[in-house]
Amino acid sequence: MSLDRSDVEKIAHLARLALDENQVEGYAAELSNILALVEQLEAADTDTIEPMAHPLHMAQRLREDQVTEPDCRAQNQAVAPLVENVLYLVPKVIE
Amino acid sequence: MHKKTIVELAAGLKAGEFSSVELTSHFLDRIERLDGNINALITTTAEQALAEAAAADEKLKAGDAGPLTGIPIVQKDIFCTQGVKTSCGSKMLDNFVSPYDATVVAKLKQAGVVSLGKANMDEFAMGSSNETSFYGNVHNPWDNERVPGGSSGGSAAAVAARMAAAATGTDTGGSIRQPAALCGITGLKPTYGRISRFGMIAFASSLDQAGPMTASAEDAALMLQAMAGFDPRDSTSADHPVPDYSASLNDSLAGLKIGLPKEYFGEGLDGDVRASIDAALEVYKGLGAELVEISLPNSAMAVPTYYVVAPAECSSNLSRFDGARFGYRCENPKDLEDLYKRSRGEGFGAEVKRRIMIGTYALSAGYYDAYYLKAQKTRHLISDDFKQAFEQVDVIMGPATPAPAFKLGEKTDDPVTMYLNDIYTIAANLAGLPGLSMPVQPVNGLPVGLQLIGNYFAEARLLNVAHKFQQETGWHRLIPEGLD
Amino acid sequence: MQWETVIGLEIHTQLASKSKIFSGASIAYGAEPNSQACIVDLGFPGVLPVLNEAAVDMALMFGLAVDAEIGSRSVFARKNYFYPDLPKGYQISQFELPIVGRGSLTIDLEDGQQKQIGITRAHLEEDAGKSLHEDFHGMSGIDLNRAGTPLLEIVSEPDMRSIKEAVAYARKIHQLVVYLGICDGNMQEGSFRVDANLSMRPKGQQEFGTRTELKNINSFRFLERAMNYERERQIDLLESGKKVVQETRLYDADRDETRSMRSKEEANDYRYFPDPDLLPVEITEQRLAQARERMPELPDQKKARFVTDYQLSETDATLLTQSRQQADYYEQVVASDADPKMAANWVTVELAGALNKAGLELADSPVSAEQLGGLLKRIADNTISGKLAKQVFEGIWQGEGDADAVIEAKGLKQITDSGQIESIIDEIIAANPKQVEQFQAGKGKLLGFFVGQVMKQTQGKANPGQVNQILLKKLKG
């Protein structure tokens, strides 16, 4: 699969990445090369193979329903770029 | 002091030959003197280190010191450290001071180590040469013109240059073993789930695993002992007993069956590296081991499988970096979309963006089955290869990398060539198996790594097999010229 | 043309756990912004989710209640999209292998018929935070307290053919989750949110029309209104030859209309994939058995039992079992030896009326079940008359104590001493010779006059039966 400019722009939008105009072509070429590498997978016969999402065949351990986290707002918001009245601020959300 | 292993340093501390404050100052001096040329550290925490050392000395005096009490190490900057900048090698987190400690960090603190600082790394652990770091290249202590490997390049270089007694690393596709090989140290990637991932900034969650990077297998055993164990905050961590890793180090290797996958000794392997590996295998024969040729028929699928699975997971894992709650935020965003796109576009480097885009593409509507699902199936095939192999052999051996350290800038233009550097290490991550790299006979003054792959939770066996070799040879004792 | 409405509902119920679905932060409602958003909820670098077992158990209880298929393995997936109320850039949800599979629920229709509504699935997921649109220099403020609150999303089949059916189904699900104790059901606080998928088709046509999804509905009344508006809007479009656009529409209660919500948004590509931070959840036989043990009596079972055990009418039983709280209250009243039918009447009429008038919930009732039971006992043992009981009830409501205290304080105790009644009657007969004469001449209706006089004299406290009996005896002489 060879990606062109518009493919890269679509993907970059989906991933919310601003790319420099003059880098788009470069990314298209590099991503196409990576996809060419990846497409070697087509050679593998996987018709009867189950997908494997985790390396270990374990069941998930669950947590007891207890409130264990104290209020650490001040500490957590100390690293926030923009906070007012204890709210995180972002450009207006339009619905 | 810096030439000593942890085991030797601990003995010295206990005997009162030197204090932890003296030891820590010594390493801090070396960092001060040497790191200008190596760039292994992003942050040095001298003040904190000396305070920790003083506390360790108290413990040593009181006689309740453990084997790591007062030992100076560096933490890969992927581990969150409370009150200390945790950058993950990225501009995105250049301003990020973590409000909490990773479990690994907390456990090592508990064990009494002294943290000298945070080690340089490829941005978000994505790279094999440490050239994607926002904080500049790390130079290989063996040759300033060459890469240290990656992504735990700073950790490997710091230990190789003896600027720290040990380091932590993380390994998603070889990021502990490959730099350990290129820098001539011992690096262990344990079984997936052996060490908690809580507080370790995620690259690819189903592959990431932390591990020790040390001067010897014996040291790695001590570090792993402190790092391993179930963590209720990581539900993928294994609730599996942690054995005494030091206890079995000297077990005999007589009758040990070593599997040599023919796919790891074929085309693409540097001839000199091959010769070094062969020489090491001869040592094992001498120790009573039996060499068995095996096949891992789906080995060629490992790199392509990895470059779907890892980017897919990372594309999602890195979505949280959006300029809203922490990390880099672009100047004057004109709207919400602009905030996201520019914060991420400006905060991430090129390799990270490439991988996010590949992963986004592989998961997107219409491509999921052909890429992501397919890769999950080939992952299964690769994992089954090992399952079969371990029915015949106890441990698998081969080269850790196809060649010794390459020159800085040599492979940066072509991502795919760079990716192929991890051709021997990636499969263990896909299968979740433990792997170790240790130095064997160098080639033209450059370290060469022998890779050992073990069965699930067989870390003790791997350390034993590595330790016996190190007792026999001493390649792990080599220190780069001019740095001793 | 004759149109048929086709409706399917997606209901988000906030589960009534103590902590969040993937972190140990509290989910209590109304806390200060961001004070209940811990590093896991905020998606800090390095954090990991750990699943709350209460969420799993509550989902299983729901599954059992709707007789659903429950698989032995359930998987969490990531739904990827960027939004300020979604800290990680993905929501942990379920895609393939949801915890609750296909099930069904029977609803009662107005004509007394019943209808089975298919439940496609119910899956666990985390709630998002909230964007506050007050003006922060043209910016939005984000409160992430709600982020990570456990949700069970219950998806129905498009089985409903009228707005009434859809409302009945939504109410029944509401009743069920509250009964099960897995959701507080508070719609104002967003604990129970209903999204409606509605489409129209010509009657008799097989295939479905294009649907719209209605959101932002926070009461059953609004649900009905939103669907009514949308139904008319779609019919208007179709009858004027236009097409319905498949989209999400927001209900605006102030204007009573729905409007397009994400018109400019591109088609979503959520890139679902199994969450690598969460291994598959194994639903063991043991866990299922535990959930089964925890199941309370469900509304339909309770109703049937009320009819049998208390000899109540269908209507009374339905009314009383509408909420578990009311049913429990009723049973407590009955437990204090009250007559079941009388108790049903008092709970559904007198008490319900008083609560309604005062705008109170049953939980806040000033009259406890024991107190009401005590009152009914005093009616039954003739301590007070039925008429005066309302005064006693009023006294208890006002906090004047329980029935006996109020009766004592107000002196409402019934006079049953026949000697006392007799002497009062004697006085009255003596004072009204004319009426006695007329009564004896055959004007029997005058008995009422004499009873009235006795009651007036005794402020209604004389036992009416005894008054009648003695009066007749004396008057007939």
Named CATH architecture of the domain at 6-256 and 435-477 in chain B: Alpha-Beta Complex
Residue share in helix of chain B? 25-40%
**DSSP helical segment count of chain B:** 15
Oligomer type: heterotrimer
Q: Biggest sheet of chain B, open or closed, and with what strands and sense?
A: 11 strands, mixed
Strands of chain C, count: 15
What does this structure look like?
The complex is a heterotrimer of chains A (95), B (484) and C (477). Chain A is mainly α. Chain A has a domain at 5-43. Helix content of chain A is 32%, strand content 7%. Chain A has helices at residues 5-14, 24-38, 73-77, and strands at 83-84, 87-91. In chain A, β1 and β2 (87-91) form a beta hairpin. The longest helix of chain A is centred in the N-terminal third of the chain and has 15 residues, at 24-38. The model of chain A has no long low-confidence stretch (mean pLDDT 94). Chain B has a domain at 6-256 and 435-477: Amidase signature (AS) domain (Amidase signature (AS) enzymes, Alpha-Beta Complex). Chain B has 15 helices and eleven strands. The termini of chain B are close together. Chain B has helices spanning 6-15, 20-38, 46-62, 103-110, 153-160, 177-183, 217-227, 271-286, 302-317, 336-347, 350-363, 369-392, 415-419, 426-431, 459-472; strands spanning 41-44, 72-76, 114-119, 166-171, 186-189, 209-214, 257-261, 290-294, 395-399, 435-443, 446-453. In chain B, α5 (153-160) runs parallel beside α6, α9 (302-317) packs across α11 and α9 crosses α12. Chain B has 484 residues and is an alpha/beta fold. Chain B has an eleven-stranded mixed beta sheet, with helices on both faces. Chain C folds into three domains: 3-288, no CATH class; 297-410, no CATH class; 418-476, Arc Repressor Mutant, subunit A, CATH 1.10.10. With 477 residues, chain C is α+β, with helices and mostly antiparallel strands. In chain C, the strands form four sheets. Chain C has an eight-stranded mixed beta sheet with strand order 5-6-9-1-10-11-12-13. In chain C, strands 4-3-14 form a three-stranded antiparallel beta sheet, with no helix packed on it. A two-stranded antiparallel ribbon of chain C has the order 2-15. Chain C has helices at residues 53-65, 163-180, 220-239, 285-294, 299-310, 314-320, 324-335, 340-358, 369-380, 386-397, 403-410, 418-431, 433-440, 447-458, 464-476; strands spanning 3-14, 73-74, 77-80, 90-93, 103-108, 114-126, 130-136, 139-143, 150-156, 192-202, 212-215, 248-252, 257-260, 273-274, 281-282. Chain C contains 15 helices and 15 strands. The interface between A and B is large, with 55 and 76 residues. β2 of chain A pairs antiparallel with β8 (139-143) of chain C.
